[in-house]
Amino acid sequence: xxxxxxxxxxxxxxxxxxASGCLDVACFTRLGGAFASVxxxxxxxxxxxxxxxxxxxxxxxxxxxxGYITGVAAGSALARxxxxxxxxxxxxxxxxxxxxxxxxxxxxxxxxxxxxQPAGGQQTGLLAVAALAMxxxxxxxxxxxxxxxxxxTYLTGTLTDLVAALATGRRPDPxxxxxxxxxxxxxxxxxxxxxxxxDTTALFPAAMLVFxxxxxxxxxxxxxxxxxxxxxx
Length: 233
Description:
Layout: H1 3-30, H2 39-52, H3 55-78, H4 91-113, H5 121-145, H6 156-167, H7 174-196, H8 203-222
Helix pairs in contact: 1-5, 1-7, 1-8, 2-3, 3-5, 4-5, 4-8
């Protein structure tokens, strides 16, 4: 893989992670205390809600979990594992990213129409769609990172690998560092927007997906792949 292709993939992973960081902050603070992509926390919250008999929290977390699982399943079926470590730019991955982009655009429009103050069933619906988008992102990212331990919607493993590398004197993975920085940046942007321009908060994740989708199609044009039909195994 050429240097430019690796750079494209790295930039894409960082942008995707920034999108998930921003969306998670928005969902947690405005959609009932559940995350769009951090399913470990949502599973813990489901158990907590069951013990406390908190039906609203349970509903939100179950909606997020169901949306995420559906997104991963749909994205994985569309972009089935191939023989290469990095499939960024191949048609199946591009289609998954395009679907996620459409979903996050819908979330942004819905969010703005509610004045960034969703309530009741609107919270549950928005959360389910946002989590569906994050599930598709998780499926796409698996085809981009290859054998790396770097994710864009779950970074505990990324952080663990990074600390282990530092503790044992190995060189940290620069992509992992960039993704962690992207997560923090996206979360910080959400915090700033929620304070001063809440209506625009959901536009940032959508904009990141537009950028990544365009980058992926550009790479497709510059480095056409062979055998990347959506139905290819």
